[in-house]
Every structure is written in structure tokens, then in C-alpha cells.
Specification:
Largest sheet: 7 strands, mixed
Strand order of the largest sheet: 8-10-7-11-9-12-13
Number of strands: 13
Structural class: alpha+beta
Shape: globular
Number of domains: 2
Oligomer: single chain
CATH superfamily of the largest domain: PurM-like C-terminal domain
Bound molecules: adenosine-5'-diphosphate, magnesium ion
Distance between the termini: 35 Å
């Protein structure tokens, strides 16, 4: 006999019981958190700094599929995508506020798993969960997270600060999260048809990129250590092409990206080939990599040169506000931002 996992209905706890249960496990650590969960509102002391605030909403069936996304990973990722936006401003995330809409499909145990993932991300990045809202939904799960960060005014980096001839630099490698999603979608389709267990063998890296992305706090720290302050910065949620276009538009410039410089992991590359996809296209349009894309002054090139965590992939160009991909023969191809269209169902 197998032990069925225990299932406690949300109605058994009620909204207040659920909040109490969640709150009992959450202990603030940030000195800037004056009051966390438990009153009508949280209190944050900005400590004389500028506050950086951002929200992201994740909707079941649009942004995630619980068929292959474990709830703990979902909680982790939901936090990380918000922190990534705060780091992209060169700020330090300190607090998050979490709103969830749950249907009675989800037992208390599911909510526990979701919050375990969120709290793990909070612990890893030194962020406090200081409040939220809990409501019911007729079918799916909706998670909306607001992240609050802080930075000295002079440290904040906008999308609009790039100058002509600045170098375009990216952290990590690109296209992995997208290829991970392709593998997960394929295995889900096979499972539906044949009942065969997923074969994820050899795809660990790209699946982790999809299911458990990290925000590049380490890159922010690295740049600080190198004494390089990017002139503009953005995080890559929708794909390199789309984010490069955002930097170009905001800065009133054009961008040239060299195709053969785009960092692509060998697993991403070979999986793209298996799917008959062009690896560069996956890197340019795939999205969800949560790497940082930034520009630096030409004079800072020596400081970053040879660092394995970051790659110079191009430069800012004249004020034509276009993004061109330069092939290995020097041919230029105009890039459109294809990115994820949040209004199109992805799954
Ligand atoms: P109100 O009815 O005044 O909005 P709530 O009962 O929703 O108050 O919230 C009580 C406290 O619990 C608040 O501090 C709120 O931020 C927190 N809270 C509510 N829902 C959540 C949640 N899903 N996660 C974390 N904190 C929550
Ligand atoms: Mg409320």
C-alpha cells in the first residue's frame, strides 16, 4: 500500500489560519524592515536611500504550467524574477510582498510548498517577506510579487544612460531557459500521448535554467569590485533582441550585436540543433534567462576583459534606434523584438 500524500483543504484553515501558518515561519532579517507581516501594512525604513519598487504577476496557464513546474520551484522563480528587476537598477532588494489567488484545487500542503520556494529565494538573497494578500480564485493560481529595494541615488542605473560607442555586455549565457522549456513541453506532450515518464537526461542545465533561474546579484557585486559602473542596464526576461531594443530606445541610440559573440552554453546549442532551431535565434528571442544586459564606457574595457562571467557582444551605435545583428561576414540584419508576448498563451 502506498501512503497518499496528506491533503488538508484550505477551507479547514480559513484565510486567517492560512496567513497565521505562513507568518509563523517567516522571520525578518533586514534592518530596514521595521514591521513585517501582522499589522494592516508593513513598515520599511528607507535609511536615506532611494527606494526601487517593481511588481510581476504570474498566471497559471499563461506564465507557468504546473504539469512540469513543481510548486517549490515556482515560488522560487516568482521571487527571483522580481529580484532580477531590482538588481537591473543596480539596487539591493530588501523586501517582497506576495499576493496569491488560490482555488480549492490547492490544498494547504501545496501552499506550503509554494512558500517554501519563496522563502528559500528570500534566504538566498537576504530579502524579507513582509506581507501580502490572500484571496480565492475560481480555477487557476495567480501570484503577484512586489519587490522593494534600495540604492544610493548616484548608484542607480537606468536604461537610458548608454552613449554612442559604449560596449554592450551580457552576463552568463543565453537561450538556455527557452531550450529547457522546449524539452519540458516535448516531454509533457509525450507523456500525454503515451504515458511515458519524461526523459530529461542530459538536459539538467537548461531545465534548471527554466525551472530554477537565479538573479545575478553576483554580477552586481562583481562590477562593483571591478569599479565598473554600467552606463545603462536591463535584465533579460524577454530575450536579448527585445532588451537590446529597450536600451537602444531609452538611450536614443542604435545597437550592433555580433552574432558570433553571443554566449551560448553547449547544452543549449546542441538541444537547439536537435529541435531544428537556430541557437542564436533562441538566445535572441527565447527569454527568461534573467541575465543582465548592460553598457559600459569603452574606457572600462580593460577592467572587464577576460572575465568568464561576462561577455562583450556588441556596441551602441548612432541614433537610429535600431538593433542590428552583425553576422561573421559583417552583414547587418535588422532585429525585431519578438520576446514573449504576455498576452499570448504560451503553453
Ligand atoms: P487586510 O484584510 O487588512 O488586508 P489581511 O488579513 O489580508 O489584512 O493581512 C493580514 C496580514 O497578513 C498583513 O500583514 C498582510 O500583509 C499579511 N498577509 C496576508 N496574506 C499574505 C500572504 N499571502 N503572504 C504573506 N503575508 C500575507
Ligand atoms: Mg489583505
Amino acid at each position: 500500500m502506498t501512503n497518499a500524500p496528506s491533503r488538508t483543504e484550505l477551507s479547514a484553515l480559513g484565510e486567517f489560519g492560512l496567513i497565521e501558518r505562513l507568518a509563523s515561519r517567516i522571520v525578518p532579517i533586514q534592518p530596514s524592515t521595521v514591521k513585517g507581516i501582522g499589522d494592516d501594512a508593513a513598515i520599511i525604513d528607507p535609511q536615506g536611500l532611494h527606494q526601487v519598487i517593481t511588481t510581476d504577476m504570474l498566471v497559471e496557464g499563461v506564465h507557468f504550467d504546473l504539469a512540469y513546474m513543481p510548486l517549490k520551484h515556482l515560488g522560487y522563480k516568482a521571487v527571483v524574477v522580481n529580484l532580477s528587476d531590482v538588481y537591473a537598477m543596480n539596487a539591493e532588494p530588501r523586501q517582497i510582498i506576495v499576493a496569491v489567488a488560490l482555488s480549492n484545487r490547492f490544498p494547504v500542503e501545496a501552499v506550503d510548498e509554494l512558500y517554501e520556494g519563496m522563502q528559500l529565494a528570500c534566504a538566498n538573497y537576504g530579502v524579507d517577506l513582509v506581507g501580502g494578500d490572500t484571496t480565492s480564485s475560481t480555477s487557476g493560481l495567480v501570484i503577484s510579487i512586489t519587490a522593494i529595494g534600495a540604492a544610493k541615488q548616484e548608484d542607480i542605473i537606468y536604461r537610458s544612460g548608454a552613449r554612442t560607442n559604449d560596449l554592450l555586455v551580457v552576463s552568463g549565457d543565453l537561450g538556455g531557459a527557452y531550450m529547457g522549456l522546449q524539452v519540458l513541453e516535448r516531454e509533457k506532450a509525450v507523456f500525454k500521448e503515451t504515458g511515458a515518464q519524461p526523459d530529461l537526461h542530459g538536459h539538467d542545465y537548461i531545465i534548471e535554467r527554466q525551472l530554477k533561474p537565479e538573479a545575478r546579484k553576483d554580477i552586481i557585486e562583481l562590477l562593483r569590485k571591478m569599479e565598473v559602473k554600467p552606463t545603462s542596464m536591463i535584465d533579460i526576461s524577454d530575450g536579448l533582441a527585445s532588451e537590446a531594443l529597450h536600451l537602444a530606445h531609452a538611450s536614443g541610440l542604435g545597437v550592433r550585436i555580433f552574432d558570433d559573440k553571443i554566449p551560448i552554453d553547449p547544452t543549449t546549442y546542441s538541444t537547439a540543433r536537435d529541435f531544428n532551431l537556430d541557437p542564436s535565434t533562441c538566445a535572441l528571442n527565447g527569454g527568461e534567462d534573467y541575465e543582465l544586459l548592460f553598457t559600459i564606457a569603452l574606457g572600462d574595457h580593460e577592467k572587464v576583459k577576460g572575465n568568464p562571467s561576462i561577455t562583450v557582444i556588441g556596441h551602441m551605435a548612432d541614433a537610429d534606434r535600431s538593433v542590428a545583428l552583425v553576422d561573421k561576414n559583417g552583414g547587418e540584419h535588422a532585429l525585431q523584438a519578438q520576446g514573449w508576448d504576455a498576452l499570448l498563451k504560451r503553453t
